[in-house]
Amino acid sequence: MPTSSPLSRLSADGPVRDGIPDHGRVPRYYAVKVELLAVIAELGEGSALPTERELCERFEVSRATVRQAVGELVLEGRLSRRQGSGTYVAPPKLVQPLALVSYTEGLRRQGIRPGRTLITLERRAAGTGLAADLRIEPDSEVLHLERVLLADDERVGLESTFLRADKFPTLLDDFDPEQSLYAHLRDELGVVFDGAEERVETVLATPREALLIGTNPALPMLLMHRVSWGPDGEPFERVRSLYRGDRLSFVTRLSRVE
Fold first, then answer.
1. What are this entry's molecular-function GO terms (predicted)?
2. Which of 163, 167, 210, 236 could cysteine-pair with 143, CB 3.0–4.6 Å?
3. What is the pLDDT of residues 99-126, one digit of tens each?
4. What is the CATH number of the domain that holds 185?
5. What is the DSSP letter of 136?
6. Are 162 and 130 in contact (CB under 8 A)?
7. SS3 57
8. Do 63 and 126 belong together in one domain?
9. Per-residue pLDDT band at 132 (split at 50, 70, 90)
10. Is residue 23 pLDDT above 60, yes or no?
11. Residue 143 pLDDT > 90, yes or no?
């Protein structure tokens, strides 16, 4: 009678089933990955993962197999590496709504303290692409606000906002860049956000972006482009938001179209 390996119980039903290719053989690294998910659940947030050597002995696999399994879990945000310290169970991802609410409001609803670090605050010419989105001339002035986004002091994203300068001539003088821009526009300037078009895609951060966010350039990022307009239908804002794919997810509610 053949002996079963520590991973044999994964070859039938359960999460590993999703990783079985058509030929029916479970990739070794994937079986280890599923076992590690159980280990992560037992350890809990912030706990250190056993060493590579311990995991190799536990699962009877090579270091290369363990590294591939752990690497995927790091990319997915289940684990986090700390240089010179080890690998740890990551906290749950932050959830942001795909709706006309600010970054600040989205985090506060989850009991998380939002924050921002100012990188750029300037006036500049719109240029061709931005002008087309905001329906202005390429040489028209826009306000540019670039900030690193924080969640409980952890860097999680980089946001670059462009606003029509003719709509907000005193904004750079009155606005505190560490506060919510949407709250200032709404409460201080009476701006009404009537609608927006948003596009989401996955990208890799540029070297500059990775340095500002404090992340690995090879880590997948979520990139969001938004153009917002008021009740008159005229666009006044374009936002480019880059978020760490291992720390944020997005949710929206859909209704049936008749």
1. DNA binding; DNA-binding transcription factor activity
2. 163
3. 656 677 777 777 888 899 999 999 999 9
4. 3.40.1410.10
5. S
6. yes
7. helix
8. no
9. very high
10. no
11. yes
